[in-house]
Specification:
Flagell_FliJ, about 150 residues, about 0% strand, single chain, bacterial flagellum protein export, protein transport, rod-shaped, mainly alpha, Helix Hairpins, Flag_assembly_chemotaxis_eff
């Protein structure tokens, strides 16, 4: 893979990773809000306690409200679980995207090292050629011939 192509792919993968990170943050916040709403629902439900001097009708109404509240809390718990699952999926997607970017970064580093090694090799060959070219000449400027 050439350097320009690698840079283009790395740029795209970095954008994908950034998008996945944003989605993870959004899903985490959604899960946090769902858990807080569930906690509030349960707290409100706990506050509905009958008083000892309440008439029977009030107790029946209170029981109906508690039943409805329990259903709401159970439904909210389901939403919290779904939000948690979406967060797990988003985290997995971000992990994959981050690993791709990391792998491309390492590939870029290896390509750079290979280019630097190739450049160093060329410089060494150039110096060797210069030394060999000078060695083939005498001090008077004539070319030595092999015996």
């Amino acid at each position: 893979m050439n350097r320009a192509r690698l840079q283009a792919v790395l740029r795209v993968r970095s954008l994908q990773e950034r998008g996945a990170r944003g989605e993870l943050a959004r899903r985490s916040q959604e899960h946090r809000r769902a858990a807080e709403a569930e906690e509030r629902t349960w707290q409100l439900l706990q506050q509905l306690a009958p008083s000892p001097d309440s008439p029977v009708g009030d107790l029946q109404a209170l029981q109906a409200v508690r039943s409805a509240g329990t259903l709401a809390a159970v439904r909210q718990h389901g939403e919290t679980d779904e939000a948690r699952e979406r967060t797990v999926v988003a985290r997995d997607e971000w992990t994959v995207a981050a690993r791709r970017v990391e792998a491309l970064d390492r590939l870029g580093e290896r390509l750079l090292e290979a280019e630097e090694a190739e450049e160093e090799r060329k410089q060494i060959l150039e110096v060797d050629d210069l030394v060999l070219a000078r060695r083939g000449r005498t001090a008077s400027g004539t070319v030595e011939t092999a015996p």
